[in-house]
Amino acid sequence: MPETVKSTTLQILVEETSLKMAQVKQTVALLEEGSTVPFIARYRKEVTGELDEVQIRLIKERLEYHKALNERRETILKSIDDQGKLTPELHQKIA
User: Fold this and answer.
1) Is residue 41 part of a domain?
2) DSSP 70-82
3) If I label 55, which of 3, 11, 14, 38 is the partner at 20 to 30 A Cα–Cα?
4) How many domains, in total, are found in the chain?
5) 89 vs 2, which has greater pLDDT?
6) What's the rounded mean pLDDT across residues 64-85?
7) 21-57 residue pLDDT tens
């Protein structure tokens, strides 16, 4: 995968979509490589375990949501750290 997706994010996607880990992992890899949802649904069914366009789009939407959430979390942690107010307890609660 070009951009590493954390295993915790993959696990969350599995729980949210009720799909198998292998299906989610392969679909995320294809999305990260720049493949479009229609392309994956039509030409990569064997890779995704026969997922349809709706399921692939759900994975994509949830992946984008969690990426944005993680970016926001990192921004908040950096901001608090720059202010010198980041304690180990606060870091753990935010992370």
Assistant:
1) yes
2) HHHHHHHHHHHHH
3) 3
4) 1
5) 89
6) 96
7) 999 999 999 999 999 999 999 999 999 999 999 999 9
